[in-house]
Amino acid sequence: MSEEHGSFVHANLARLGRILFPRRLWVGLGVVAIAALFVRPQAAFGHFQILGACASLGLILLGLAGRAWAAGTAGQHTREARIEAPRLVTGGPYAYVRNPIYLASVVLGFGMVGLVGDPILLALHLGVCLLLYAGIIPAEEKFLRERFGNEYETYLQHVPRIWPRLTPWEQAGPVSFDPRTWLDQIKLALILAGIYFGLHFSAWLRS
Fold this sequence. Notes:
Four Helix Bundle (Hemerythrin (Met), subunit A), single chain, mainly alpha, globular
């Protein structure tokens, strides 16, 4: 792929991301509504169902904790309906990966897939992650480049986009933490519980 073509693709993905960003929650809920029409919860781990269910719950808790850590480090602007960044955050989880909230959400989603057990849900999870993050991440990168210039370029060169480093970036900045973000994750946990039992109820109605 030529540099010019790559820039064209990146620009169009960023444009799509700006459209999806304020609607990201509704996209996810819409996919859940579609899943309720045909997903059938099942014991996907066979004789190791208890172990698999515990591992799935562990992924969900890990994802919730990762989201809380990342959102609490970044600040309340992560809840906004538009892309914002009052400061460039490079410490905490952001010293390992540039998009820790999205990474944590992917991990959380895998946990839900394992807990529900229907492989169709795995395809839906991967599809919605690709749809959202393939656009939103370039849109955020474009915004951060324009706002923070060379400071962001330096950060970008040393910290991976989605697959974390094993050690934190040595030049990471200081961090603070807003504990109120745990309340958001508790609300999300309740939503996930509602989704889990809702899928079971929908499957029961269709049986």
